[in-house]
Design a protein that fits this description.
178 residues
């Protein structure tokens, strides 16, 4: 290599499209996650509305029965009947909650796994394209230069002259999320 040609492995060229591609992948993941959470929230709201409507209808029916057959015997049986109805209603509500929870968790898990797989594929393709454009730079160097360009440049500048070449090839890992 000539003295004027830059060493691509020592100073990886940053692909100007890589940060945008990674941002788009992250934004797509965020939107998919938000949609999955909104879907789960809508299912919980639907269950709450259904339970509330059932309780209102049951109360209306019982009130109508009391008004039609208002007598001491009907009123005397009311506490026992109300307890049995409340227990039955609570069991049905608990079953609905459990079914909704299982359904929501399964749907969210499957959707989130699919969203993560798409994100992983989009991020890998973006880094792969940047690696191809960078030539001989390693994928780690391309990733570090794209994700942490300021930290990488500061680490190279702060390194002792003998350590600058090593720092340029292996950027600092501080603050990265694994």
């Amino acid at each position: 290599m000539s003295a004027t040609a830059p060493d691509r492995a020592a100073a990886p060229a940053t692909d100007p499209l890589l940060p945008l591609a990674l941002y788009q992948a992250n934004l797509t993941l965020w939107l998919r996650t938000s949609a999955l959470l909104a879907e789960g929230r809508a299912q919980w709201i639907a269950l709450g509305v259904q339970t509330l409507r059932g309780g209102i209808e049951e109360t209306r029916s019982e009130t109508d029965d009391l008004l039609r057959g208002a007598g001491w015997q009907t009123l005397a049986a009311l506490p026992t009947h109300a307890l049995a109805q409340a227990l039955q209603h609570q069991v049905a509500a608990a079953q609905g909650v459990v079914q909704t929870a299982i359904s929501n968790q399964a749907a969210f898990g499957a959707g989130y796994r699919a969203a993560l797989a798409e994100w992983r594929e989009a991020a890998a393709q973006a880094v792969g394209r940047a690696w191809q454009r960078a030539g001989t730079a390693t994928p780690a160097a391309v990733w570090a230069a794209a994700v942490q360009p300021q930290q990488h440049a500061a680490a190279v500048a702060a390194a002792a002259p003998a350590d600058r070449a090593a720092a340029a090839v292996a950027p600092q890992d501080a603050g990265t999320v694994h």
